[in-house]
Amino acid sequence: MEVQTSSAVGVKTNQQVVGPIVLLGPPGAGKGTQAKLIAETYGIPQISTGDILRDNVARKTELGVKAKEIMARGDLVPDELVCGMVADRLMQADCVRGFILDGFPRTVRQAEWLDTQLEKMRAGKDGKGQQACAPPVVIRLVVEYNQLLQRLTGRRSCPTCGLIYNVYYQPPKIQGICDVDGTPLVTRRDDTEEVITERLKAYEQLTLPLVEYYGARGRLIEVNGDQPVEAVMAQTFKAIENVNRL
Ligand code: AP5
């Protein structure tokens, strides 16, 4: 097996199928941070339902108008809207070797929908490329509550390139400015303490049952997310490579 490696992260440019990866974890666990690293390294797309929804809100689409207030409160957007959005995204050509779902599924109904959708995609593939829509590998990032609060209140992101910073843990070189493109960094609207509390409640009530859902199906891998980004990344990559034998 030939794997070419370059850059600090190590880009694995071979064209092997990676398959679907689900990143599961509470708000602030580091799903977006790790998803970007996986995407860059394995050459598969990051599908962040939060990012797609925020883009729709910014463009004031029909979906964005429906989602705006729900997201501002810290509640979950209805399953049918989110599943429809994911279905469209999975049809795109860049998902052919696999994809990373960041923030989806978030309810048992979404997880059941995803299993059915992947099964349909496998059936439609006639044996070719079926591995790209195999049952997902689910990586759960486990992080302690107070750490989550600090990560979320300290988060800043670049509206141009999407890079995520943290004023406590990963500050930019110049305060408030993106290292890559010089854009002023922004704070997410839902990163206020009041909304963070609601988001964490929604996670406990609606998303945590997925640990049992995927655990019972033997697909869950737990990673200690309470470590520096590079250490979490090393464990996450190991989990992906062990399952996929890349
Ligand atoms: P979404 O955008 O998915 O937000 P979330 O799940 O609340 O997760 P976050 O993006 O806040 O955190 P993260 O785990 O990605 O952490 P990050 O890497 O940024 O969803 C937003 C809203 O959209 C939801 O509330 C809901 O309304 C709606 N929505 C989305 N998907 C939906 C769905 N499927 N169904 C229904 N509704 C849906 O890191 C956080 C901070 O920590 C950063 O500053 C980062 O730099 C820092 N950090 C990361 N890793 C580390 C580390 N190891 N050590 C120190 N700092 C770290």
Polypeptide structure, described:
It is globular and about 50 Å long. The chain has a single domain, classed as Rossmann fold. By secondary structure, it is an alpha/beta fold. The N and C termini lie close together (8 Å). The N terminus is likely disordered. Helix 2 packs across helix 3. The longest helix is centred in the middle third of the chain and has 16 residues. The site of BIS(adenosine)-5'-pentaphosphate (AP5) has 36 residues, from helix 1, helix 2, helix 3, helix 6 and strand 6. The site of BIS(adenosine)-5'-pentaphosphate has 36 residues, from helix 1, helix 2, helix 3, helix 6 and strand 6.
List the SSEs and their pairings.
Blueprint: E1 19-24, H1 31-42, E2 46-48, H2 49-58, H3 62-73, H4 79-90, E3 98-102, H5 108-123, E4 137-142, H6 145-153, E5 155-157, E6 164-166, H7 193-207, H8 209-216, E7 220-224, H9 229-244
Parallel strand pairs: 1-3, 1-4, 2-3, 4-7
Antiparallel strand pairs: 5-6
Helix pairs in contact: 1-9, 2-3, 4-5
